[in-house]
Design brief:
Structural class: mainly alpha
Number of domains: 1
Shape: globular
CATH topology: Hypothetical protein af1432
Number of strands: 0
Distance between the termini: 60 Å
Order of helices and strands: HHHHHHHHHHH
Radius of gyration: 17 Å
CATH class: Mainly Alpha
Number of helices: 11
Helix content: 55-70%
Length: about 220
Amino acid sequence: MNNNEIHNELLRIVRDKLKCSAHNLDHVMRVYNLCLMLAEHEKNVDLDVLVPSALLHDIARVDEIQDKTGKTDHAVLGSKLAGDILKNMDYDKEKVEKIKHCILTHRYRTGNKPITIEAKILFDADKIDAIGAVGIARAFMLSGQSGQGLALSNSIDDYLSSNTAENGRIKNWSKHSALIEYEFKLKKIPDKLYTDKAKEISKERMKFMDEFFEKLKLELEGK
């Protein structure tokens, strides 16, 4: 297979695998396009590593969401699945290992940190798609899909102790909410980014997101 054929086959696999509305092929393609844009502002980026990483980064996301124990980490499982897929395509073994690293380290709630420039770009692109107007829309798509409420029904401490597992993974997504996601992840994203261009983009996106959730909190309080 040439690269175009490989990419088309990866897209087919991803389309079949991802049934989650907030992490579907639309999200994958936005991350893919953000990766290409960020790569233009960095040096020595290997697109043969970056492109498959972007296309396959959420291949195990549905598995994580469906696991009510919180034990499944889609980055860890996705790294393995991506490796198996690419090895079956006879993809360059050294590049496969680099792709696996990108996917393993793209997750926000993780102890695995991106080391290579391709891994840092994928991490940043995935996080940029979680903030701003698109981030708000995605948060509520996932909220509606999981049957979540708008507000937290008990104390934050009770929620964290009962519904989060190792590295902050969510056990039961129906007990989560878009507001909780904003407070404990989304508003912290700009401080986690690696590339200068991603940090620049995040400033404008977060301004809009902060204003929205502050307004939401006031309205939930009846103000």
